[in-house]
Amino acid sequence: MSGARHEPDTFGVTADTVLLTIRNGRLSVLLIERRYEPHRGSWALPGGFIERDEDLDAGARRELAEETGIDVEPNHLEQLRSYGAPGRDPRRRTVTIAYVAFVARTPDPTAGDDARAARFFAVDDLAIDDLGQSEGTPLAFDHARIIADGVERARAKLEYTTLATAFVEDQFTIGELRRVYEAVWGMPLHEANFRRKVLGTPGFVEPTGETAPTDGRPAQLYRKGEATSLHPPILRPT
Amino acid sequence: MSGARHEPDTFGVTADTVLLTIRNGRLSVLLIERRYEPHRGSWALPGGFIERDEDLDAGARRELAEETGIDVEPNHLEQLRSYGAPGRDPRRRTVTIAYVAFVARTPDPTAGDDARAARFFAVDDLAIDDLGQSEGTPLAFDHARIIADGVERARAKLEYTTLATAFVEDQFTIGELRRVYEAVWGMPLHEANFRRKVLGTPGFVEPTGETAPTDGRPAQLYRKGEATSLHPPILRPT
DNA sequence: ATAATAGTGTCTCTCAGACAGTATGTG
DNA sequence: CACATACTGTCTGAGAGACACTATTAT
């Protein structure tokens, strides 16, 4: 960090959150429709300016709750990365600290003051290309790029952590867990091998002894185990 | 991001870089001794305030060069994460965007204006504990934690990317590459299996046809291949 | 009965780890 | 020669992918 020779330039600092969940079997992200300029009427990530004495994580959580009514546990929120290109916000120089959150089913979002609407979009429908541009719904700022980076974080973390359990209810079946992987990775998985890998990874899941009805044979219910990282990892098929 | 209802608080934004290299077979980080308050006389990461119309990456690179005389290629610099706890800088509210850089041998650093000295420290000698506190050299701000996070990034990236080639010269032997892994991971690797894995990963390295003398039989020289990610990964032994 | 999903058993191929042995330089 | 490092060959065990088969529900 620099010495005190000249007064440093000032920035606005925002926190924007990529909240991901599975809706109707599809990986989905929570967006708001902006009520104010800039990008009024565009869809954007929920977020806003960090306050003077507020921790970054707390600010992300507060803004998410204010704009969408959804409150996430602090440990379900993790920093993604920061975006601060000059000109990314036409008002003034800003840096945004992007967060990702992974949740199971939530209550329907309710639009807060700064938002005209708040709802989930299936990530596929946004059709974000390699350059971080959405070919579907136009997104505010550089939020298409941020969403793409957040989705890639989720895809990578499924491989070597127990993140998938964040997307399902407290009790869940192996089939439900598999459908999380399939939704996030966007590909079908081999059912029998998936089961063998999950049950063969100590601490990933624990049986509860209960069963749940399905469209076929009822399934054993499990809950999240103590492990947080997977050894060995469950790798994406090539 | 919030609407325009109230004027947002302002932050100073800095970029600090964890520049890692291998010196004397040990993973080492470049630090400067601070000339000015706060933390005058403490060792710190090179970095400083981002300027008004400057991209974050460019600011990190500029500050690194100003304070240490070391200029890194932009593609050898990647964002680590941001740190912005209230009170982390006693002067004013700041957020720092931390970067990591991975380089082969560099010219010796030369202390710039804000630094009384600049030199490399073996990461082990800093003895950073799980809480991100250095038990050896006292470090300014939250830089011990940032260094620990940067080192963990390097350790993780060796597994699934060709990052190791950034730590060696343009031409290198398999033994040199193995010693990079050993220095970063802090453990000896099985020589024959390491060779088999590296040569069996398409695009990791390409033979040059030349040889280099060693303390034993001369070794084939290789250069970096086209691959950037490793399939399959080279996993850390348990 | 069929359809649908849960769950088991097993074969094969790849690959990591381990180890033995050979090759080629220096002192 | 001994010594050091580079390099090769091969065995074994773990695990991924593929497939066949059985189990248990609803309709």
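qc> Chain B touches chain A through 49 residues (CB under 8 Å).
qc> done
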